[in-house]
Each structure stands twice: as C-alpha cells, then as structure tokens.
Backbone:
C-alpha cells in the first residue's frame, strides 16, 4: 500500500515540501512542457517550479495542440542548447521590449526533451537561450551527461536570475535541496557513496 501523499507537492505526507515552497512573482512567464515519463518521478523538480512561481505554467504531454495559444502575444524563447543559442544574460531585459517575455522549458531527460522538440515543430523553431557556464549541479542523486547539466528548477533559477537581475529566485531551490537530502537519507550513506561517489562528490 502506498503512503498517503500531499495533494499539493505529491510527496509522502511525512516528507511534504510545502512549507519550503516560496510564492515568487516574476515578469518573465515560464512555460514548462513535461514529458509524461517525468510526471510520477520522485525527483520532479518542474512541479516545484510550478508551485513556487506564480507566473509559471506546467503542461504534461508529448504533443501540445495549444502551444500556438500559449505562445501568442509573447516574446518566446526556448531554454535549450543549440548552435544558434544566445546566452541568457545577453537578452535585453523585459522592460526594453513591448511584448511579454516567455521562457519555454522542455522537462525530461535529454533524450526525452529532444523528443518533445521533434514532436512539436513550433517548439523547435523558437529562438534558443542557453545558460553561461556555472557551478556544478546540486542534483546529486540523478545521473547527468555532464557536471554542468542542471535540473529543471536549477535551470529556471539561473535563467530568471540573469533575465531579471538584480532580483533573485534562489528561494525556489530550498524545497529542491530538501528533496535531494531526503532521497540521500532514504537510500543510506553506503548506497549513496556506492552509486554517486559519496556525500560530497558527484558523478
């Protein structure tokens, strides 16, 4: 029998993160397009973004028929690397453009995110943004293709911190840190050290 879960954060009641989830406003609208395989994943950080950011929208699917509607009347950018991607700190601030800024983020493994782009040509056609090199991800319990590959919540925080500086959105990371600490505690120090290189290391 599964443990009772919080209806809001969907974590077991004993591990509820709601007290740590902030209520932040942003000028930039954030649209999270989540591959269905991530919906029930215990490390679902896109949901933390949607709960902690009032101007965020989380949609789940492989194709999105309403994508033209969501993009309409917005200055839309796709946060995803590519040869033509512009570093996020080089984008003009929202105050200097007439239309609303929209940051679109595919959520899933790198393979699943690429599948979302392939299945949604309008998404793939958006101008792209990429993050500048930064600190390694704190996502210590999930495999990543490179040390600087970030979780969705980390990527959103880094992007918004650049787009809306000097405002900061680091409070979104509080439930994420608690989520990771809880996963490490649940697996035990020996298992964590064996699979992830120890308490102070990453893959």
Residues:
């Amino acid at each position: 029998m599964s443990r009772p879960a919080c209806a809001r954060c969907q974590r077991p009641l004993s591990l509820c993160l709601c007290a740590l989830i902030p209520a932040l406003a942003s000028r930039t609208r954030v649209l999270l397009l989540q591959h269905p395989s991530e919906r029930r994943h215990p490390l679902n950080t896109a949901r933390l973004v949607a709960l902690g950011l009032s101007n965020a929208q989380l949609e789940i699917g492989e194709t999105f028929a309403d994508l033209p509607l969501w993009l309409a009347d917005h200055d839309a950018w796709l946060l995803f690397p590519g040869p033509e991607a512009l570093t996020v700190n080089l984008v003009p601030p929202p105050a200097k453009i007439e239309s609303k800024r929209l940051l679109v983020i595919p959520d899933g493994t790198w393979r699943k995110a690429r599948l979302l782009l392939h299945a949604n040509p309008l998404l793939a056609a958006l101008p792209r943004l990429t993050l500048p090199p930064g600190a390694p991800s704190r996502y210590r319990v999930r495999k990543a293709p490179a040390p600087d590959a970030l979780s969705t919540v980390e990527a959103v925080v880094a992007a918004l911190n650049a787009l809306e500086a000097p405002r900061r959105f680091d409070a979104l990371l509080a439930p994420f840190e608690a989520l990771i600490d809880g996963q490490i505690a649940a697996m035990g120090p020996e298992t964590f050290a064996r699979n992830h290189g120890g308490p102070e290391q990453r893959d």
Remarks:
- Helices lie at 45-52, 67-71, 110-119, 121-124, 152-163, 173-187, 189-196.
- The first helix runs from residue 45 to 52.
- The radius of gyration is 17 Å.
- The CA atoms of residues 185 and 192 lie 9 Å apart.
